[in-house]
Fold these 2 entries.
Entry 1:
Amino acid sequence: DAKTTQPPSMDCAEGRAANLPCNHSTISGNEYVYWYRQIHSQGPQYIIHGLKNNETNEMASLIITEDRKSSTLILPHATLRDTAVYYCIVRVRDMRFGAGTRLTVKP
Amino acid sequence: DGGITQSPKYLFRKEGQNVTLSCEQNLNHDAMYWYRQDPGQGLRLIYYSQIVNDFQKGDIAEGYSVSREKKESFPLTVTSAQKNPTAFYLCASSIKQGVYSNQPQHFGDGTRLSIL
């Protein structure tokens, strides 16, 4: 399975867009990109996933580069409740969670 | 509401005891998973099951055992052979892998196990 690289932490102002990057340069053609987030002491919450097209749902947008070697999760209007650890995962079968990005939304 | 229920939320174990963590789902998912999370780290796969009466070891299966007698239930037993069992344990489920392998896993809220 491909590995991912994410910055350990990021800050974002409340109401602004949060753009979380992820590098997955060794991704193979049949591996999807998934994003989850985890608020302290809770289970990971699924956000969005995609293969090669950009995706959008009620929570976020996922932008995948044309070569699929990187992606960006966009939270369009971050709120304080979006403060969490965000995980970018590529997988065919099993979920392999790394350390993720700790996003802090500040008032 | 459909979802995954893990119980108990907190569990304490004396050294040398086996303990069983419960995981129940009413999502009609075929596949179920157990993960372990240590402080400040990501999740590591312990066991997974794609169908009733079948399961496979993950990356860190030593000291753990599972059963899958019913589709909706996938209990995890932490045995006395697990030398460092203190951790946060997460259960997940998904539509069966291999057929719809792009389907995401959905997680319960975890059980925090501590050694007395």
Entry 2:
Amino acid sequence: GESVGLHLPTLSVQEGDNSIINCAYSNSASDYFIWYKQESGKGPQFIIDIRSNMDKRQGQRVTVLLNKTVKHLSLQIAATQPGDSAVYFCAEIPNYGQNFVFGPGTRLSVLP
Amino acid sequence: DAGITQSPRYKITETGRQVTLMCHQTWSHSYMFWYRQDLGHGLRLIYYSAAADITDKGEVPDGYVVSRSKTENFPLTLESATRSQTSVYFCASSEVTVVSEQYFGPGTRLTVT
């Protein structure tokens, strides 16, 4: 598999701590948002999504928060594990349309 | 094997040559997508397809051609490769609507010399 992103912003957290990864989106008309995880050598993997009529959505160990006022999206990972080490991308989709717009990504590094 | 596969996984080609990247999915998903991934740009959509024989441009379509004669295949062709097309290419598919979870292939690293 392949991955890029050697010079991405990096977030380092201790194993067991909670992680918060932030994303600023650009289009106020965006109405659907997705978080993806990309492990080294693999393609992106869907984590969780949220629609613009919501401000919070929870999954298994993950929570996505949406603040439309400041166009900000965050991904919270509870009890971070070594397997969570990856690059995380947010994507916005304006007008439930066709063009997914991905952010540049954040590398999460989990320290033992 | 079930899933979404890409071939080749690595390709080196010369400027001006035509090269085709293959994508195959076994889920019979309606939608298929091609992205490129570059440092500092994240993933950018090149083309997508809503069904066989239906394709549409994404954010960065120039220099690329796609076709979809069968639901399961979505090849991407660089008609005359340029160095700026050196990138990692990902194919993805989704089930019913474009606004849903997309499943990504493992990627193809293309180098144009």
